[in-house]
Design goal:
two-stranded antiparallel ribbon, about 90 residues, three-stranded antiparallel β-sheet, 5 strands, alpha+beta
């Protein structure tokens, strides 16, 4: 099982907020990435960072797919440009 490491840097985090920020990060991480089946989530915190490590599933089936828009260029004399970029979805 692969290990995932996430570290967030920020401005100074007050000492009284560091532990809660780490707990919230772990909770939100587990909720958002439930499809990766995170296990053994450990958090770390300091004055300028909050981090976590977790074991995640090595293979996950896609539950949705996203197609990217195609990009075309063509002449657009009506807009006064020599080239226009068109996105077709």
């Amino acid at each position: 099982m692969p290990e995932l490491f996430l570290e967030l840097f920020s401005e100074e985090i007050p000492a009284r907020m560091q532990a809660r920020a780490a707990e919230d990060l772990a909770r939100l991480f587990v909720e958002a990435l439930a499809s990766l089946s995170p296990r053994d989530v450990r958090t770390f915190h300091g004055p300028r960072r909050v981090a976590l490590t977790a074991m995640v599933a090595s293979e996950v089936e896609a539950n949705r797919t996203t197609e990217r828009a195609q990009l075309f260029t063509s002449d657009c004399p009506t807009l006064g440009h020599s080239k226009c970029i068109l996105y077709l979805c």
